[in-house]
Prior knowledge:
Helices cover 36% and strands 14% of the residues. The protein is of the alpha/beta class.
Amino acid sequence: xxxxxxxxxxxxxxxxxxxxxxxxxxxxxxxxxxxxxxxxxxxxxxxxxxxxxxxxxxxxxxxxxxxxxxxxxxxxxxxxxxxxxxxxxxxxxxxxxxxxxxxxxxxxxxxxxxxxxxxxxxxxxxxxxxxxxxxxxxxxxxxxxxxxxxxxxxxxxxxxxxxxxxxxxxxxxxxxxxxxxxxxxxxxxxxxxxxxxxxxxxxxxxxxxxxxxxxxxxxxxxxxxxxxxxxxxxxxxxxxxxxxxxxxxxxxxxxxxxxxxxxxxxxxxxxxxxxxxxxxxxxxxxxxxxxxxxxxxxxxxxxxxxxxxxxxxxxxxxxxxxxxxxxxxxxxxxxxxxxxxxxxxxxxxxxxxxxxxxxxxxxxxxxxxxxxxxxxxxxxxxxxxxxxxxxxxxxxxxxxxxxxxxxxxxxxxxxxxxxxxxxxxxxxxxxxxxxxxxxxxxxxxxxxxx
Length: 450
């Protein structure tokens, strides 16, 4: 299959990408060939919502459909064998990118489904369904007993969560009688270490974001995880915002007490329609299946069924084969850039935009005012101007940003607002795009605050 061309060549470098390296990366992205609404080049600053795709990722998907499309895992003819190999090779590649094994990665339709798989599996286990058969009470020595929660137990989240890592846990608590508690935030939107005492012996699950999709603040895992490990909580980490910007090592995270984390392909330069649950083999063995049907069974009779072990247990039905192949190409592309270098580049851009916005009267940052322990995500509000109006003015200038509550209403409530405007950086972002953004913000002020 066609692979992305390497954007960087020669000996490995350190530090931020230089202008020539960024230009080489930008040459791989077809979206830059189109014009914005105003006829100028598009300044895409919404990478936290979804990433643009390099040509190699698009070509990989197309090549799969043209040359290797077959029924993976269902036949022995050549196309089927190739499709199966493509899918499993992609599993291994995506897993390796985050320091995991292929046996620890379950493909899902998105990260939201991955979180729901865990929450629903806990709900099923709490209702007496065993992992092995999907029916009947769990035996005393069944690992699924770790998943059983009920009245008197607690699930802990943070106020910084995306709705995808909040609502499933609200629903789990409603079904099981458990209590939902949360880590609160400091004035600038970071997790408040003073609220760590909500993690107690009653805590059965801790679900938290690695980095906020609103403020960009990186969660202090070094403070939180030891507390969760001490009380034996099952830890689910949402890495959707961080996986394309910071190196992840699931092996190290496991040692620190993380049981599972979730990934989103479309935020990692990969295709839409596919995500992943990365979980310890012990957790996958304990979890009862949530979606059932073809591809995940061992034996089916008219009376009952038994299920496969490992990731296939949770991958019922036909799989997103072309999307998995594209995701593999995407992580290989990111690996060639180097996430350390990409993060360093985004830090420079974040500093540039923070300094520019600090000079804007009536503008309030929603989140930290510096680049310490944060990603290239910056949200803000402008006094007297609705975020949607901000977005329209920026769009007219060819600058794309996110407006609204960003699927994170509780953190906006923390700041006393209903919505905000947000820009975020990715592989193609440049200082020139930041300059265009700041110029458009000046236009917002002139238009609405005169």
